[in-house]
Amino acid sequence: xxxxxxxxxxxxxxxxxxxxxxxxxxxxxxxxxxxxxxxxxxxxxxxxxxxxxxxxxxxxxxxxxxxxxxxxxxxxxxxxxxxxxxxxxxxxxxxxxxxxxxxxxxxxxxxxxxxxxxxxxxxxxxxxxxxxxxxxxxxxxxxxxxxxxxxxxxxxxxxxxxxxxxxxxxxxxxxxxxxxxxxxxxxxxxxxxxxxxxxxxxxxxxxxxxxxxxxxxxx
Length: 219
Prior knowledge:
Blueprint: H1 70-102, E1 105-115, E2 117-120, E3 123-126, E4 133-134, E5 148-152, E6 158-164, E7 167-169, E8 174-185, E9 190-195, E10 200-204, H2 205-211, E11 213-218
Parallel strand pairs: 1-11
Antiparallel strand pairs: 1-8, 2-3, 4-7, 5-6, 5-9, 6-8, 7-8, 9-10
């Protein structure tokens, strides 16, 4: 049988035990009160995780209606027509350039104009009758129908020859001849053309092929 001194207080068995640093207590005395119930809106997740955020709409817009409206068909037809016209024009340009480049020979044509005057004392006058046949005389007697026309390539070699046609007076002092030189070989960057022995005149190759010649002699 246990006895207690009257001066020593009896232990209180209901009081929690004393705490010490680092000591962990478990039991009903240290349990937390239960959490309060949640009253907010529950989080909802989209049925499609890859769908865009709400409010942004479809990423690429709504699909076009089918069949298209008359206005849409008209715009499409205009676009296709414009594309076809552009392609055709480009093809014509390319085809024309290719035809010029691919030609093995070409004909040179144009005019040769002789200006000849006679002098009497301090006066000068023409010796041609406008609209009539004409030819050079005196120092220009080598200029007549059938006079030679020679074409040289860029290296100075003779590549083609032709003649002057019949002369026709365009005024009392000018006589104009037609120039014709067939079968000039294509491909040279530059050509030279000479009427009779009157000196060579240089032409750019493509310009000679497309524009021909316009030559003059005398003053």
